[in-house]
Amino acid sequence: MESTFGIIAEPNRRAILSLLASSEQSVSEIEHRLRMPQPSVSKHLRVLREAGFVEARVDAQRRVYRIRPDPLREVDAWLAPFRRFWSTHVDALERHLDRMDQAPPRKGTKRKKGKKR
Amino acid sequence: MESTFGIIAEPNRRAILSLLASSEQSVSEIEHRLRMPQPSVSKHLRVLREAGFVEARVDAQRRVYRIRPDPLREVDAWLAPFRRFWSTHVDALERHLDRMDQAPPRKGTKRKKGKKR
DNA sequence: CAGGTATATACTTGTGTGCGTATATACCTG
DNA sequence: CAGGTATATACGCACACAAGTATATACCTG
To answer: What is the pLDDT of residues B6-24, one digit of tens each?
Structure first.
């Protein structure tokens, strides 16, 4: 029932995703960092997992969760037609990226610049 | 209570936004094209308007609605940290957008954080 | 002004869903 | 095996909200 957008409508789930964006985390780590009750964390993680936003790796009794990008990519794709409203010359770049999306994955070039905000 | 994300969680509202992405439309045009009851359209438009997603231009008895990009931009910004999961050299795009963020007049609210109540 | 069109609002109802509390399951260590 | 830790699930409740129906407001045309 819950669509991709419905799922990220929940603030706590967005918080979990944002936390996982930096690095994978176990349930208790999430629980502690976001200061939210453990059943709540587990339940949100279940929703996120079943919708494909995250996946779990088992490490002894811990489950370490990490991002799976596909659903967020869908959001990104939905957003595409609106980008022209705030970006004038990104259009070309966008088409460029579109073409790149189906290009074979190439590894090696990531985050070479420390330009974070 | 309705956040930016909560608002686009509604499929009909997304449909309205997508329709408006192509060009501005009157209420009855939306009603007809999306085949949804008029009160529903008006109500969704109200929500979208109050949240800043759209604005209305008055033309006689008609109200012609058009996109206002700011809230969607916020979504786009939230998405930014995740892009590295599916794009290798989109970093260029990111820097590009970063630069762009401070280029236009004003509107510097990035980094929208909110997890407490 | 009447009649018609276009849009907005009021009110009710049903359903979904997040939360809290309690408990169950799984695994590790001694 | 016992005891502890880590995570998942069950259940009840309260509340937000989308949809439907009916009605109100605004404006245009004759």
So the answer is: 999 999 999 999 999 999 9
